[in-house]
Amino acid sequence: MQDAATLAMDQPAGLQVDYVFRGVEHAVRVVVSGQVLELEVEDRMTADQWRGEFDAGFIEDLTHKTGNFKQFNIFCHMLESALTQSSESVTLDLLTYTDLESLRNRKMGGRPGPLAPRSAQLNSKRYLILIYSVEFDRIHYPLPLPYQGKPDPVVLQGIIRSLKEELGRLQGLGGQDTRDTRETEIWHLREHTRPWGRWMLIT
């Protein structure tokens, strides 16, 4: 992903990393295109996916409500730093709606009471929490991610097939100068195909 000075431009910028939330490995994909942030989280074991799209107005209104306003491009830069773990002041968490309500109650100093029945749609939603730690305080920015289900097996088969073709092409390339780059790309392709293949075996 590009730096904060260029994230708000029209040129799309993307980042994908593996991130462990509460002992479970997830793939987190972020794309910033113009003034829109697209965010997707996928459980590496179950292939369940959650996805959300947020424009600059939503992000800046969200940060304003926390009392710690951030401009859109600065927020995207903070998210990138949290994903790449390049700054100790920003971290991430992934919460259910119940988790989020409990967090709000703790911050307000109230005792957790019985939760009212929630719809299945609300219960299936996840919230990616960007946590900004400053002196004497921690600010939580919750990004709601509706549940998208699991990938279509037919689509997955096509993706795996194209990745394997690309893997074969890279393995067939010659030349000593490109060896390190080629081996790195091959490793990434194998990492991408492994969880999808495992999920298809489970289903």
Structure report:
- InterPro entries: CCDC61_N.
- One of its GO terms (cellular component) is ciliary basal body.
- Keywords: Cell projection, Coiled coil, Cytoplasm, Cytoskeleton.
- It comes from Sapajus apella (Brown-capped capuchin).
- Belongs to the CCDC61 family.
- With 203 residues, the chain is α+β, with helices and mostly antiparallel strands.
- It folds into two domains: 130 residues, DNA double-strand break repair and VJ recombination XRCC4, N-terminal (Dna Repair Protein Xrcc4, Chain: A, domain 1, Beta Complex); 40 residues.
- Helix content is 41%, strand content 30%.
- It has six helices and eight strands; from the N terminus they run ββββααβααβββαα.
- The strands form two sheets. Strands 1-2-3-4-8 form a five-stranded antiparallel beta sheet.
- Strand 6 and strand 7 form a beta hairpin.
- Helix 5 runs antiparallel to helix 6.
- It is globular.
- The two termini are 34 Å apart.
- The N terminus and C terminus are likely disordered.
